[in-house]
Structure formats: C-alpha cells, structure tokens
Design a protein that fits this description.
With about 350 residues, the chain is α+β, with helices and mostly antiparallel strands. Helix content is about 60%, strand content about 10%. The chain has twelve helices and six strands. About 40% of the residues are buried.
Amino acid sequence: MTRPWRRFRRNRLAQAGMFLLGLYLLGALFVPLLAPYSPYTQDLRSTYVPPLAGLSLRGPGGELGLYVSPVFRHPLEGVRVDWEEKYPVRLWVRGEEWRWLGISGNRHLFGVDGPVRLYLLGTDEQGRDLLSRILYGIPISLTIGLVAVGIGLILGVPLGALSAYFGGRVDLLIQRLVDVMLAFPGILLAIVLVAILGPGLENAMIAVGIAAVPIYARLVRGLVLSLKALDYVEAARALGASHTRVLLRHILPNALGPILIQSSLQMAIAILFAAGLGFLGLGARPPEPEWGLMLARGREYLAVAPHVATFPGLAIVGLVLAFNLMGDALRDALDPRSR
C-alpha cells in the first residue's frame, strides 16, 4: 500500500483535490467562527445587497484600514450607502451567540466594531448574509455525500458480492432488480424515491443513497466474478473455509481499490443529486442553508441580484471538483499498470 499512497501524494490532481477538500473541511469544522452571522438572521432593509457593498479602505479621518458603512435598499433608488458613517472591521470580535459540536461561544474570526453588518458576498432576498449561509451549507453537503455513499455501500456491496459469488437464481434475481433500477436515470430515480418518501433533507439523503445501490452492485459483481476464479480463492475453499470467510477475508479486501475510487466519485455525484433535489424543492426545506435550495431561490432574482445564485453554484462546483480530482488520482495510484 506504500507505493500507491506515494504515487497518490505526488499526483498533482490529488494535491489540488486534497487542498480544495481541506478548505471545505476546515470550513465545516470551524463554521461558527468563520461565519460572521447566523445563516437565519434576516434584515429586510438590506435585501439583495451586492458583494463588498459599503466597504472602503479609508476611515472617517482618512486613515488607512478596512471600514464598513451602513448599507440599505431604498424601495425606489435601490441599494444606498451612507458613506458619512464608517466603522472599522476587526478580527476576533464578539458577535451573535452560536453553538456547534457541543461548544458555545460568541467569537467570530472577523466582524464590524459598530452597529452595521459586513456583507462580503452580499445578501439574499431576505437580507441574510450569503457568506454565512454558504459556510453553514458545507457540513450539510458533506453529510449528504457521506450518508448517500454509506447507504450505497451498505446495500450495493453485499448485493453485488452475493450475486456474483453464488450465481444461479440468486444472481438472476438480484441482477433483474438492479436492471430495473438502472432503467431510470440516477436523478430521476432519486426524484421518484423522494416523491414516495416525501420531501425533506433526510429523505433526500436516503433517495440519493438508494440511487447509488445499482452502481455499487454492478461494480462489485464484476470484481467478485473475476476474483473468485483465482487460485488463492480455490485454495481457501479446498481448505474448508466457509462462504462468509472466503468473501470477507479473501475476495472483498482485494476489491477495495475500485470500490474506494467509485466512492470518491460517488460523493461528488451524491452532492450534485442532492443539490438538484433541493433546486426542485424536493430536498432541504426553507430556511435551511442548503446550496441547491439557495440556487433555486436565487434563480428568481438573477436580473436583480445574480450573486444570490452565483456563489452557491461556485461552492457546489468547488466541492464536486475536489472529489472528482481525488477520484481520478486514486484511480491512477491504484492502477497496477501505472508506474
């Protein structure tokens, strides 16, 4: 395992993917510190504020620094900035109370020392800080990917292994079930399942996970079919090893490489599917800061505030790209033909 891991670490795609994923993981771990405000805090006087509105590099007396002026939306004149008032941006400031992973606090990495709000990425249709909502959406998207991939692994791997190992009627029954599931495009199957289970974030995770089951079942079936005919498996059978022992000790461990590669790529697919369900209104429900739901709400205001849909879309692209890069690098590293 040392040589594939060394190839993986030296792969430029892997380095880029790990860097991107590391940024997202840090964001998910320290989200209440990085987010200046709660993702649910509304300010209807500051709707559709564009990114960096009210920021200036000089204070009231002309001194250099980062300062914020009050920003509000006038019903007739649009976004207005009161440049006569300026408040400094500080690091490690006290702000809104938060509770995360069993820890409570009110400190934030940055904020404004004054009665104004800082909108680095602007605000949405209800005046909520877009940066805070995107940051709080990171753990939601990662959880969706992990749960969906976990369901696909737990159900798909045993089905594929049993189908290939025992063959006969077992293989026929399982593969016909898999064929029925594969007859639907993945996102369509997820939509059908959510329609049956009901809309909601938890049901969306389950639906995306079940949609991944036939992919894992077909992959593992092909791997087990090729592995069960090898000499060391025949030797284990000749020595009296049970079917369970042969599968768990001799076959499946040698199939971990392709399964691991598929899981890294499936994480990206699961995040995209969940975002698509949220976009269609079948995933997370308002006011949850889920990126697909944010995209769906933002599309209604593209002419007025394109940033409301642009930044959640970029967040999805970055996370999906990270998993795709790592999946490609894993495939290259675990390929026995690569040098």
